[in-house]
Amino acid sequence: MFWDSYQVNHPPTEIYISIPPALVPFSPGTALIAAPTPPPLPSPSPQTTSLLALLGSHSPNPPILAGTRKTTPGFRLPEKYAMLIGGADPHRHDLSSMTMLKDNHIWACSSQQPSQPSQPSQPSSSKANSSSSSTAASPITKAIHTAKAAGGFAVKVEVECQSETEAIEAIRAGADVVMLDNFSGEGLQVAARRLKERFSLGSSSTPSDGVKEEEAGSGDTKGMEGGVKREEKREFLIEVSGGLTEENVGGYVCEWVDVISTSSIHQGVKHVDFSLKVVH
């Protein structure tokens, strides 16, 4: 409230201040320490503006551009605010905003198998145990069900997937968002199309072209040119992430991708060189 003016020249930025009357008896140095800090100067990051324009040049309806949670320690709020000002989605503000299941969480569920005490061998019991183990929930399904039970209906669950097969399992288990992580551009477009077609039109009794789920791996387009098996219609979003920059993001833009997330729009922002000048 005491600042007469501030002037932005980039680079560098100079902030001119007038010493508040109440602080005039003190030395200039003391006045600067005691004076209130200047208001923040938010501006769209050049990376955000450039990436949004690039996405728009590849599609009339481009996917949402989002940041990530990997912000500078202590500066999450201003960096998230800058994403909003620049036109991007800030993604999760913190760990409570949405449950994201990554490889470590999936692994933790796979290692939580309770040990069974040894018992005498019995044919009928052995057969029952075999049947039970074959129908046991997989780590991805178990992790999603656990997260849904803990978060309730109000918290979305996102699952990081390394292949189309993992994404299919996650969607079947009720994931709200599947993140296709570190796919190649070509492999991503094929996998995203197949996922949307598989769960968007309802069930069909026959898979077309005999394409097997396991053939659709991360970045692998072999055997995926045909149709896909239709399953029960489900609502979900496809997010793409992993090393996306202005140089390669164009290859990931397609109608089947809902969100493109990258930390380059905030981690790649250069610091502003500014100085503080006392008006005397």
Describe the structure.
The chain has 280 residues and is an alpha/beta fold. It has helices at residues 28-34, 46-58, 76-86, 103-110, 123-134, 139-151, 164-172, 185-200, 264-267; strands at residues 13-17, 64-66, 99-101, 157-161, 177-181, 237-241, 259-261, 274-278. A six-stranded parallel β-sheet has the order 2-7-6-5-4-3. A two-stranded parallel ribbon has the order 1-8. α4 crosses α6. It is globular. It starts with 12 loop residues before the first strand and ends with a strand.
Short structural description:
This protein has helices at residues 28-34, 46-58, 76-86, 103-110, 123-134, 139-151, 164-172, 185-200, 264-267, and strands spanning 13-17, 64-66, 99-101, 157-161, 177-181, 237-241, 259-261, 274-278. It starts with 12 loop residues before the first strand and ends with a strand.
